[in-house]
């Protein structure tokens, strides 16, 4: 018998790679990594676990990867509902951020978002926001994996004075957290309309030099494209290409408005798209042509965007919406089948973020980032085919257990600290004060 830290026995394991579900399988975890995925009866003969977790009526998947969010904006959930993007930004979000954003705001907001995401089966998020150092600290304190954006934008904030200052501070944060096992980084220029040519060219150089992905809002609205044509004489993606950013490192967030040549360009360069369907619908930006992206072979990841434009950080719900919208928009039910949608929500995100060797599937040697969905509730019954059940029937309320790097961070739907205490109390404590401050500025 081989000793291991944890043996998770489940009704179905859905490894994502290969596609499909394995019935009555067990996952052996040791020192944070997956050491075996095998039939449960065989696992009991081979492994002596310090902890055995029996999930008799559950599906276990790789932890979901939220490929685009602004976690701290959980504190602005529901602010500026029913406004289009530019009014939402100009009239609500930017004035409120100017008044409220601080290191404490980002820490408290990110921790709130982390608890919501973990309870939704999300084990890793790719974030873009001010004070990335506070974001990284909050994710780590919640026990969640994070790919933190080194944000760059031309306008000043409480965090930084100008684009140069944003980059300098973000890179210093990256240096300080170089050895953190749960945190990696992207370069995160906000959007083509908020970042100058000089800054974008510098970021293209840094991406090469430091081997970092570039996480950026791209072609979100028609307004963005019209503005670029007026100001630069070209569409945003052509400008990014000219500045050396249309590469395999690019994570084009949204990519709602792409013409055929732009889809081909992204495919040819090996760029990824972070598809955020709920945010695109809520801000009335449009519907990304996911069928065309997938058909061209583009790596599609799924993101929630921030809670101010969604208003949920529910990646499973987002995955269902992505699959349904892709079919409806293409008028083809075969587009984005459930297994492909789940792959986008796990491996697709990991691939875009440069962490595919570590996470995104249940494979031996990878980090044990796992989510368990309990199918005991009447609305989860019956289950004929676990993968499509997950995507079309299941709900984040069914998430019972979550592991990040082998640590059991959600138990019986509770996010717990290293000491085993429930995290929701301390996370909720400062929220009312932030809400009051936001209300004062909205008057
Ligand atoms: Zn966004």
Key descriptive features of the protein:
443 residues, alpha/beta, Urease, subunit C, domain 1, TIM Barrel, eight-stranded mixed beta sheet, four-stranded parallel beta sheet, globular, binds zinc ion
Write the layout of secondary structure elements.
Layout lengths: L1 E12 L8 E9 L2 E7 H7 E16 L1 E6 L15 H16 L2 H17 L2 E6 L4 H11 L2 E8 L10 H14 L6 E7 L7 H14 L3 E5 L3 H11 L3 H7 L7 E5 L5 H10 L2 E4 L1 H6 L7 H6 L3 E4 L12 H16 L7 H15 L17 E5 L11 H8 L5 E6 L2 E5 L2 E2 L8 H5 L2 H12 L1
Parallel strand pairs: 1-4, 5-6, 6-7, 7-8, 9-10, 10-11, 11-12
Antiparallel strand pairs: 1-2, 2-3, 4-13, 13-14, 14-15, 15-16
Zinc ion binds next to loops.
Biggest sheet, in brief? 8 strands, mixed
Reading off the top of the CATH hierarchy, the class of the largest domain is best stated as Alpha Beta
E-strand count = 16
Bound molecule types: zinc ion
Overall mean confidence score, pLDDT = 97
Please give the alpha-carbon distance between the first and last residues.
Answer: 66 Å
Beta strand %: 15-25%
Helix content: 25-40%
The secondary structure category is: alpha/beta
Question: Could you name the ranges where pLDDT drops below 50 across 5 or more consecutive residues?
Answer: none
Give me the CATH fold name of the largest domain: TIM Barrel
Structural shape: globular
CATH architect. name of the largest domain: Alpha-Beta Barrel
Number of domains: 2
Q: How are strands sequenced across the largest beta sheet? A: 3-2-1-4-13-14-15-16
| Cα-atom radius of gyration | 21 Å
By DSSP (H or I, 4+ residues per run), the number of helices equals 16
The CATH superfamily of the largest domain bears the name: Metal-dependent hydrolases
């Amino acid at each position: 018998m081989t000793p291991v830290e944890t043996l998770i026995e489940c009704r179905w394991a859905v490894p994502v790679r290969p596609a499909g579900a394995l019935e009555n399988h067990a996952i052996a975890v040791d020192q944070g990594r997956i050491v075996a995925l095998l039939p449960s009866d065989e696992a009991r003969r081979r492994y002596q676990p310090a902890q055995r977790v029996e999930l008799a009526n559950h599906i276990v998947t790789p932890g979901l990867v939220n490929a685009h969010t602004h976690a701290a904006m959980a504190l602005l959930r529901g602010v500026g509902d029913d406004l289009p993007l530019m009014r939402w930004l100009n009239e609500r979000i930017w004035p409120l951020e100017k008044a409220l954003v601080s290191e404490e705001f980002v820490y408290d907001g990110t921790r709130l978002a982390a608890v919501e995401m973990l309870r939704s089966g999300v084990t890793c998020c790719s974030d873009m926001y001010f004070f990335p150092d506070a974001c990284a600290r909050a994710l780590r304190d919640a026990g969640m994996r994070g790919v933190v954006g080194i944000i760059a934008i031309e306008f000043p904030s409480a965090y930084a004075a100008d684009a140069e200052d944003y980059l300098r501070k973000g890179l210093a944060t990256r240096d300080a957290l170089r050895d953190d096992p749960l945190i990696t980084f992207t370069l995160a220029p906000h959007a083509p309309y908020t970042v100058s040519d000089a800054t974008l060219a510098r970021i293209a150089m840094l991406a090469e030099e430091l081997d970092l992905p570039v996480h950026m809002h791209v072609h979100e609205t028609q307004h963005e494209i019209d503005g670029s044509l007026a100001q630069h004489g070209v569409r945003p993606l052509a400008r990014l290409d000219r500045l050396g950013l249309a590469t395999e490192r690019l994570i084009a967030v949204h990519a709602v408005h792409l013409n055929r040549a732009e889809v081909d360009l992204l495919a040819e360069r090996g760029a990824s798209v972070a598809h955020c369907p709920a945010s695109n619908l809520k801000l009335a930006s449009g519907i990304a042509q996911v069928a065309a992206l997938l058909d061209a072979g583009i790596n599609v990841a799924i993101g929630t965007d921030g809670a101010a434009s969604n208003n949920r950080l529910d990646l499973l719900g987002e995955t269902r919406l992505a699959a349904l919208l892709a079919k409806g928009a293409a008028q083809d039910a075969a587009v984005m089948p459930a297994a492909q949608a789940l792959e986008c929500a796990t491996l697709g995100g990991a691939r875009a973020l440069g962490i595919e060797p570590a996470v995104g599937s249940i494979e031996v040697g990878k980090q044990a980032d796992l989510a368990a969905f309990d199918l005991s509730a009447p609305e989860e019954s019956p289950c004929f085919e676990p993968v499509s059940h997950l995507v079309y029937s299941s709900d984040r309320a069914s998430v019972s257990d979550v592991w990040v790097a082998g640590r059991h961070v959600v138990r019986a739907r509770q996010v717990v600290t290293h000491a085993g205490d429930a995290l929701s109390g301390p996370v909720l404590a400062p929220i009312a004060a932030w809400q009051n401050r936001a209300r004062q500025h909205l008057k």
